[in-house]
Design brief:
Blueprint: E1 2-5, E2 8-11, H1 26-33, H2 52-62, H3 70-74, E3 83-87, H4 93-100, E4 104-109, H5 115-124, E5 130-133, E6 146-152, H6 163-169, E7 170-181, H7 186-193, E8 212-213, H8 215-221, E9 227-233, H9 249-256, E10 259-265, H10 269-272, H11 280-284
Parallel strand pairs: 3-4, 3-6, 4-5, 6-7
Antiparallel strand pairs: 1-2, 2-8, 7-10, 9-10
């Protein structure tokens, strides 16, 4: 079934949605943090789940190998002293990186997030952040007070703020950095090009569970912003048919990557004549 976010058209995965993992499911939480398929079951060095060592290992692995693109995409080191609002926090690894970089961090936790686990993660690192409940129709920030909204929409249920609400909380010149599952990813093209693959090889399940989006749809959804950039990232060779694995991974992930990275910038006040007024397209969304 299709859904929408403003003008954004999103596509539910063909398979049944995977239930959100609970705190008693450390493997499920780890797979989400590392953007791995939910069926991945390799252990984590015998570490006690939710221990300090377990959290440290996940935080390190999230940005290694297949996740080396994340620090640059999420701009951890580019916003010291700025206000960052995090949506879809996972176990808090990204929020911790922003806090360590000198950002003032607010985490909006939805009903399927784990605030106690996130707080424990931050406390173990000696970091501070405000953790507040995410309301269905309003972000937890006053008008024009946020420099960066970091929106992780890779897993269902994902936060779905309206574009006008994002514009409301952002300062003049502020930005949204969003991660969305890509519709036209490696799995999509394998299913199209290899319809009989089940006879000789079955591709791994998708590493994301939220409804998928297209670059064109995301650009339309953020039409009220001054500038929108969309790029594809994230791919593992193990997710590819063997003939494709000889090709450069950096090239493949930009063509058929699993994740769409969106950066959308709010207009400067000097170009609109006011801080508070929203573009007509955003008000109509």
């Amino acid at each position: 079934m299709d859904g929408s976010l403003g003008h954004l058209r999103i596509f539910a995965p063909a398979a049944d949605l995977v239930p959100a993992p609970r705190p008693g499911d450390p493997q499920g939480l780890a797979n989400r943090e590392l953007i791995r398929p939910p069926t991945y079951r390799r252990g984590h060095g015998g570490l006690e789940p939710f221990s300090g060592a377990w959290l440290d290992e996940l935080a390190a692995k999230r940005y290694q190998r297949h996740g080396t693109w994340l620090p640059a995409a999420l701009e951890f080191d580019r916003h010291p002293g700025e206000t960052v609002l995090v949506l879809g926090p996972g176990i808090g690894s990204d929020a911790a990186r922003y806090a360590a970089g000198g950002c003032e961090v607010t985490i909006a936790a939805g009903p399927d997030d784990h605030p106690a686990l996130i707080r424990d993660h931050l406390d173990r690192r000696g970091l501070s952040a405000t953790i507040t409940a995410l309301q269905p129709d309003r972000l937890p920030a006053a008008d024009c007070t946020v420099d960066v909204v970091v929106w992780n929409a890779l897993h269902s249920p994902a936060p779905t703020p309206e574009p006008a609400e994002l514009l409301r909380v952002l300062k003049s010149g502020g930005k949204v950095i969003g991660l969305f599952p890509a519709k036209y990813d490696a799995g999509y093209w394998q299913d199209i090009l290899f319809p009989l693959q089940g006879w000789y090889w079955r591709r791994p399940p998708d590493p994301t569970s939220a409804p998928k989006a297209t670059g064109r749809g995301l650009a339309a959804a953020f039409a009220g912003f001054e500038r929108v950039a969309v790029a594809k990232r994230h791919l593992r060779r193990s997710e590819l048919p063997h003939p494709w694995r000889v090709l450069p991974l950096w090239l493949l992930e930009r063509l058929i990557g699993r994740v769409l990275v969106v950066k959308a910038f709010k207009r400067l006040a000097s170009r609109t004549g006011t801080h508070a007024a929203l573009p007509a397209t955003a008000r109509a969304a």
